[in-house]
Design goal:
39% of the residues lie in helices and 19% in strands. The chain is α/β, with parallel strands linked by helices and 176 residues long. It has a seven-stranded mixed beta sheet with strand order 3-2-1-4-5-7-6, covered by helices on one side.
Length: 176
């Protein structure tokens, strides 16, 4: 009976922590809402990844974009604020054939350093896109590609898009 109580109370505590992290994630950038597999495939296709390229996923969640990009030969870095999703993604990476190509960091995407990125994947809330745009403009190297799920960057024109899946690709710096 004590073991059952312990397991039940531990599960309730973990669920409570997960709910708190989701609420914090909503406030800081976006809640955990995974992109569907067709959308992920569209995002990776628009990124036009080549072997050796470096791709970041800001708010990487369960890492599904990281693994698709790694399958295309890219080195990938995921950054997520939710420690449970980071542990999940790191475990998945350790057990995958992409062990050396997928890295996941626990951190706040607003403190991310993406200056070496060839591609940056994002799926944030629309009201956070202007702030993200400033972060990217301060760091990205010329020629870097930003692929956004669902939400656009104001005053940036996508060079490519997948209207069926609502995915937009931007090249940095955007044309004036």
């Amino acid at each position: 009976m004590d073991l059952v109580f312990f397991l039940l109370s531990t599960g309730i505590c973990l669920l409570g922590f997960e709910i708190l992290w989701d609420l914090f994630g909503t406030w800081s950038a976006a809640p955990y809402v995974p992109s569907t597999h067709p959308v992920c495939r569209a995002m990776v296709a628009l990124a036009d990844l080549k072997p050796g390229m470096k791709a970041y996923d800001l708010g990487s969640g369960d890492g599904r974009l990281l693994f698709l990009a790694a399958a295309g030969g890219a080195e990938t870095v995921g950054i997520d604020i939710n420690p449970f999703l980071v542990i999940y993604s790191k475990t998945k990476a350790l057990l995958s054939p992409f062990r050396g190509k997928v890295r996941v960091r626990w951190g706040n995407l607003w403190r991310a350093r993406v200056a070496d990125a060839d591609v940056v994947f994002v799926y944030l809330m629309p009201y956070r896109m202007a702030e993200l745009k400033r972060l990217l403009e301060a760091q990205l190297k010329p020629g870097a590609v930003v692929v956004s799920n669902a939400f656009i960057f104001e005053n940036w024109a996508p060079f490519n898009e997948d209207k069926e899946h609502g995915v937009y690709a931007y090249r940095f710096p955007p044309p004036a």
